Every structure is written in structure tokens, then in C-alpha cells.
Amino acid sequence: METVKVQDIAANDLPWQIEYHAERCTMCGSCVASCTFKAIKVEVQRKSMTISQANQPEPVHVQQAIPVIKQVADINNACRGCGMCERVCPNNAIRAVRNLDNRRNLLFNRPIKRGGRTNLNAQRTLDKIIVGRISQMTDPSLDSIRHTFDIRSPLGRVLSAKELPFRMENGKLVATKSTPPVRWIYPLIFSDMSIGALSTRAWEAVAMAAAYLNEHCGLPVRMSSGEGGMPVPLMESDYLKYFIIQIASGHFGWNRIIKAMPRMKVDPAGVLIKIGQGAKPGDGGLLQAEKVAPHIQALRGVPKATLASPPNHQGLYSIEESVQKMHLSLNAAFGFRVPVAIKCAASSTSVSVYNNLLRDPYKICGGFFIDGIQGGTGAANEISLDHTGHPVVSKIRDCYLAAVDQGAQGQIPLYGGGGIGLTGNAAADAFKMICLGANGVFCGKILIQLLGCVGNENGRCNACNTGKCPTGICTQNPRLVKRLDVDKGAQRIVDYVLAFDAELRKLMAPIGNSSLPVGRSDALVSTDKAIADKLGIQYVC
Amino acid sequence: MCRIGAVKSKKFVYPSTALRLMLPQQEGHDNSGFAMVMQDLGGVFALYKDKPLLSMACTKQGARLVEDYMSAKNFVKMAEWLPVPNKKKDLDIQTMPYYIFRNYDYPEHYDDAESRENLLLDTRLALRKILTESNQGYVYSFWPDVLTLKEIGDPRDIATYFRLWDDNGTLLAKNIIVQCRQNTNYKIVRYAAHPFFLQGYTLCANGENTFYTKNKEFQKNLHRGYIGFESDSQNFLYTLHYVLHELKWSIPYYKHVITPLPFAEIAERPDREILLSIRQSLAHLEINGPNTIIAGLPDGRMMTCCDSKKLRPVVVGGDETTIAISSEVCGINEILPDRNFERDIYPNEREVVVIDNDLEVTRWKQ
Question: Which residue from A minimizes the CA distance to B262?
């Protein structure tokens, strides 16, 4: 009996297997050239075959050495299922097939790092919620095309009416002091994906889409820079007003940001302090050395090394401190003209955080962003990606109701993210979140999916951490980055947001609302009793 | 859809005038009830205009509970009018055993306007609690020179029962706000019938407040008097009270709160910073959905305005002595047939119309 070395890795141990048809293959080499993971290679095989070369059949049995494409049976070069080989093959000779019987979890015996979204916890609360309060006879539905809609959300600290520094003078209100800055923006924010996590070109495509939506479509969409700084020419341009500058625990890029401040012509849309992220709560940002290319080193002021941001902002040990130190100093840095918001991973403690922010006497927090477990990441230990976090839907609701209890709803705008658009329809998700109490939503992964990302929730590709992104979106390799068409990518995002806007109207119209129904939970029903009870909406069947 | 109306006159008018304003519009209001708030009273209450008048409907036990409470709180009974009903057979009315309209004098030490306002509100809220918990009746208003009558049934029969058709000189007022329907969307509850009253502010609304949940969740923390919420139209009154009485802003800002201008229009205005601040701070008081409101203010002025898409009708028309506000013009034609109808006002979606006590009409666009 043949001896088998069972401890060796074989292709059938890996999550994806290559299905290859030698008879269709013309040996063009495109698949091997396109595979960024070096998961396939050219090999020569000795084959036994019957051939006939004459005009009449003259079969001859020969043994020939011919080149073939073969899967590399190695963990470091495991196929990710990205499908680039299938895409480039002219003859449909090769494709990746999911291997249900893989032994990945047993063989990859180290903290696996990868990007993308969690594979577990895929239950979708939002899909069990329906917009069920339709205007029928009691009041008229609106016309989503002909009526005008006011789709704007606040970003900034809103004062209660009694705190407004107003005085009546000859029947008119006059302001006696200034109030905290509040921007009215589109309720969809392009979430924080840094230059570094994204390729410069992918980041540029998202930024171009944001600018185009503002300048040509009349939609004040804002984009968060992510923790990686911003290009100096952008910071010194008029377009800065469309960007929310992020500061996270690594403070990456802030050296350049601070130096650019005196030359900023306009104020940024806001500053977002990232405390945590839904995909890997309790972890700091993580940029693998593979992606820290020379231009990233320059932007962030670091050597080539894995950049693991600390889990906390150093020097902050309590929420009061955070408010006093970070919020106040960032507010002061921009002359109290720019709203400063905070982003946390959804957690059992989110309501306590929100309550504290609402009660802060400085009235300085301009937004609370809650990021749920279904959010994506450029890199995380898989164990945290799959097994830590908190769903965002009930958390937004809990925070909103906590504000209702205080009579402070709307004073610190709530933004929810993490899985918005997971099934492709971000407008429906956003609308339901808004009815539950969010002022708006933020989404990231759907943007890179629009650019061409092929990753999914079932472990396809999700190699954002490796620097080998086959679509040129999450890599700094100049050759791979060329695969991304920036203009086309930006156009895809613009088209999607325009469709999002039309769909949002299509949901507002039947409930008879021309402005955003923030907290209008009566518009929603659920076919799931437990969800209905938890969210305080009607159960229907 | 409701139909709502109001009559404001230099001379005292009878409730029958208000009924005649409403009845031609009956196709729209299904005759399921009758409710009116009279202000600036003549007739039997003319001598006690400065004394708070309690309007309630209750059982015998309820009357006793109220009397006990009022004497415990040192209110002094001044005058009382108990209607002698016409108990004709086959009237469509769901009666309560007693209808009590009673003037009290203030207890000692309540000399300034603010403490009196608070006392009257707290007393009404306490009485409402007592009567609700014991299920013995309803208290509608407790305020000087204001009378509220509400009942379930056919408005014509309700008027017959209370002898309102007789024009006998007992009930007269210069301002009447009226509505002829119960809130038929939900359970029929007497408290759900508008006009609603709070500290001198009276309001009725024709429409559907699609931001009811938002309004309610916000209002319940704003003021102890913002309770009940049996009808989505109460939100309009509470917002009116909040803007004018609590924030002490002027009337134009009420319109800016309930139907804020679109952001694009705000950006064009010289007062954009104020308007934007209002819109963001009071976002939860916005009204979205079809509606018209008619409101009476403590000083006797009346106002009307509509939703931001003008999805509900309203018309203002009158002569030198009387002006009426009505959902439909046929009502005004009934009571003021000789007026110059060319001067009727059909307010648009951005307009506010205010009628002062000299019947001078002011209108402006928000």
C-alpha cells in the first residue's frame, strides 16, 4: 500500500480548490499572472495519452511531458477564491471552487489575520423589519418623484430650545451668543477607510465620488478620512469641506494634518474620534507591514513595519477625560467651528457612553457613531472578527430611547453603521435605522464592493490584510493598483448613491413624510416577535 | 377627516352660530360628537370673568370627589351653572349624569399671574387624575372666562339636549372654537375630542399627524401639562403652548417649528442661523402630514395655518363684526351669507393668519 504523509498540506485541505480543465487550456499564462496569492503555478506533468496526427485516424499511444496549471498546496499561498483566474481565462478552463470539507481551522494554527467581515453572526435583524405603516386614506401618501423631500441630517451638538442663546427683539429672535457648529449633511456617510487600508487610488475614487455628489448632484455626502491622514493638496483645497478627518489611537497622519491647518482654506466637515470599530471591538487599527509601502510610510511618518494601533487613546482613562481632553482640544484646534464626533464599537455599554455624552456640561460632543458587529475591517485577528462585537440595530434603538428618557433626543446625533448595505440595499437599511432613532448611517464595505471588491461574508477573498488584493483596492502594490479604474469606480459609487436617494424617497413617500422620520418607530413592524418586543415596534404576522 | 371651525366676533354670539357653521360641513365629519371651547364669555358667566371656571362632566360621586378636593385646596365657590337638559326621547347622545360649570375664587396667596396659571393647571391635572382613577368623570378646562363642552353623539341632538338651539341668553361668547366629531381613528374617548385646552391656549386640528410618535416622545418630557395624547392633534396644542408660553417666542416661530422651511430655502434667508437653530433644536416637534389648525390664544386672538403641502383646506371670511374660520366655505356661507366673499382668505401652505380682538386680520408668509 502506498505511503501517505497525512501531516502534509494537500490542496483538498484548503478552503478553496482549483478546478482545472487541461483540455481547454491554451497555456496563455493569464491565470498564473493574475493570481496575487501565487495560489496556482505552472508545472510539467507526464501524461499518458492517445493522439492522432495524420489525415486519417492513426492513433498512437504516447507518454508526453506537458505543462499544466496546478494549485499550490501551501497555507501561505492558499487560494482565496477571489476568482481572478476565472475572470481572465479565455477558455473557461479554470475556476476556484469552495471546499466544504476543508481543514482550515485545524491547520492554520496561529491567530489568523484577515480583512472583510465576520463569517458568523450573520443574522440580519433589519431583514425582519418592514415599513408597515402606510398612508392609506387617513392621510395621503406622497409622490416620491413629484414632491420635494428634505433629506438632511445634523452633525454637531444640538442645544435644547431652552438653551438657545436667543432674545426676543421687536417680535423677532436675535442670537446673543454663538451656538455649537452643526452641519446638515446627507444621512449616508462614507465610512472611515484609511489611505493605507485602501490603495491611494481606491481612496481617491471614493473621495472623487463624494466630491462629485456634492458638486454636481446636490447631495451633501461626507466622507471620513480614516486613520491614515489625508493628501496635503486635498487638505489645502476647497474640497476639504466634504471630509471628516478621523483621529484614532495611532494618530497616524496627524503630523501632516496639524502642519496643514494654517493653510486650510475651508474647515473640514467634522472631526471623528475613533474609539473603536465594530468588526474588531477592543482592538486598535492594524496595517500589516506588507501594505506599508514608501508612500504610506511618508504619509504616516513611520518605518516599514506592521502598524498596530493601541486599543485605547493613550492618556484617556475615562469618558469624562475623553470629553475634556480630546473633544475640547480638537474643538479648540479648529476654533470651535468644526463639529467633533465620536465613533465607538457597539457594546453593552453604549447606552452608558451615550448618556454620559448627553449629560456632559460642555455640550461638546457633536455626534455618536455606533459601529456594529457586521462592519468590515482591513485586518483583524479572525477570532475577534468572528466572535466579538455587538449588533448595531438594537443598540441604536436603546441609545435613542435613553435620550428620549432624558428628553434629549436629537441633541447628539446618532449614526449607525456596521453591515449597512450588507445585502446590497443600503437605502432600506438606512431607512429602518432612521425610523428606530438614527439620524443617519455610515457604510464602508459596500463602497469598495462597488469599486470591484469580490470579498463576501462566506470567506471569499477577504485578503485585505495581505497586500495582495487582486482588485487593486486594498493593496499598495503599484502593479495591482493599476487594475482599478478610478473614474469608473467613482462613477459606480455615484450611481449607487443616486439610486440610494431615489429609494429613500420611495420609502418616505408611502409613510407620508417629506423630512426624515427620525425615531418614527410607528412606521415599522416586525414579523419576529422577539425583535418587535426588543425594539418596541408592532409585531405582525 | 375632521372639519373644524371658529367664530370670533365683536358681539357675543350663541353656540348655535358655531353649530350652524359646522352642520353644512357634516359630510366630512360624520356627526360623531360635539366639542367647543368658548372664550370671553357673556351670559351667566359675565360677572365672573376674572374667576377660573371649571368645566366638567361627571357622576354624582365624581362631583363629590371634586368638591372635596377643591375645598381642601381652599378654592371658594363663586357661581355655578348646571344645564337643565332636554331629555327628549331618541336623542343620539351618550350623556354623563352631571355637567358642571362652576366659578371659583382663588385661594389666598395666589396673587400673581404666574402662580395662578400654575395653580389652575395643577388643579385641573389633579382633578383629572382623581376622576380618571375612580372612573367618575372628565374635567376639560379650568381657566378664567373659558368654558368647554364636549359630548359623544349627533351634534344636533347634543345641542337639543343642552338647549343650545334656544339662544336663551345663558351661554354667550365672543370667541368659539368648535368641532363636530369624535376621534374616530381610535377608541372613542371624551378627552380625545378637540378642541384641546391648556393654560389659555385652545386648539383644534383637521388632519393626521404622522410625526405623532416623535412629537409625543419629545413633549412628554417638556412640561407636566403635556399629557393624555389620546389624539395626535394634542401635539399641535402642546407645541403651540411650548413655543409661545414656555419659550416665549412670537407666533411666527410656531409655524417655523411645526412646518420648518426646507433647508434650501432657509439658506437664502437673512435669519437663516435662527431658523436653522430652531429646526435642529425642535426637530422632534415638526409636524409632517396633512393638517390645518385653528388656535385661540390667551389674549383672545385667533390664528390658523396649514401643513407645508397644503393637504387640508381652511378658509377665513367675515364682516365688520364677525369673522369665521372654517374647513369649508359652505359653513361661513351659512352664518355670514352677506359678507363680501371676495375678501375671503384661503391661506396657503406657508401662510399664518391671525385675527385680533378688533377683528383686524394679519397674514404673512413664514
Answer: A150
Tens-digit pLDDT profile for residues B98-146 = 999 999 999 999 989 999 999 999 999 999 999 999 999 999 999 999 9
Q: CB distance A139–B213 less than 8 Å?
A: no
pLDDT in tens, A389-434: 999 999 999 999 999 999 999 999 999 999 999 988 999 999 999 9
CA distances in angstroms from A338 to A258, A335, A414, B248, listed in the order given: 15, 7, 17, 30
Answer yes or no: is pLDDT of B292 > 90: yes
CB pairs under 8 A between A and B: 112
Q: Which CATH superfamily is domain B4-365 in?
A: Aminohydrolase, N-terminal nucleophile (Ntn) domain (3.60.20.10)
> B121: closest CA among B54, B189, B33?
B54
Instruction: Give the domain ranges of chain B.
Output: 4-365
Residue A122 lies in a domain: no
Contacting A residues, span 407-466, partner chain B, CB-CB under 8 Å: 407, 409-410
Number of structural domains in chain A: 2
Q: What is the DSSP string of B300-339?
A: S-EEEEE-TT--S--EEEE-SSEEEEESSHHHHHHH-TTS
Tell whether the model's pLDDT for residue A105 goes beyond 80.
no
Residue recorded with cell 374660520: B325
Query: A159 and A92, same structural domain?
Result: no
Residue A539 lies in a domain: no
Residue-range definition of the domain harbouring residue A257: 143-513
Instruction: Give chain A's mean pLDDT.
Output: 93
pLDDT above 90 covers what percent of chain A?
A: 82
Q: Which residues on B lie below 8 Å from A150 (Cβ)?
A: 262-263
How high is the ipTM of this complex? 0.92
- At A319, the pLDDT band (50, 70, 90 cuts) reads confident
Q: Are strands B93-94 and B146-153 parallel, antiparallel or unpaired?
A: antiparallel
- Cross-chain residue pair A139–B271, CB shorter than 8 Å: no
Residues of A in contact with B249 (CB under 8 A): 166, 168, 173
A519 touches chain B (CB under 8 A): yes
- Which residue reads 476565472 in cell numbers? A86
Q: Cell 493574475 sits at which residue?
A: A34
**Widest pairwise Cα distance in chain B:** 64
| Tens digit of each residue's pLDDT (9 = 90 or more) over A219-243 | 999 999 999 899 999 999 999 999 9
Query: Which residues does chain A have within 8 Å of residue B276's beta carbon, measured at their own beta carbons?
Result: 182, 184
Q: Are residues A190 and A329 in the same domain?
A: yes
Nearest-by-Cβ selection for A184 from B213, B263, B282? B263
The verdict on A98 and A147 lying in the same domain is no
Domain assignment present for A535: no
Q: Please report, for the domain that includes residue A45, its CATH number.
A: 3.30.70
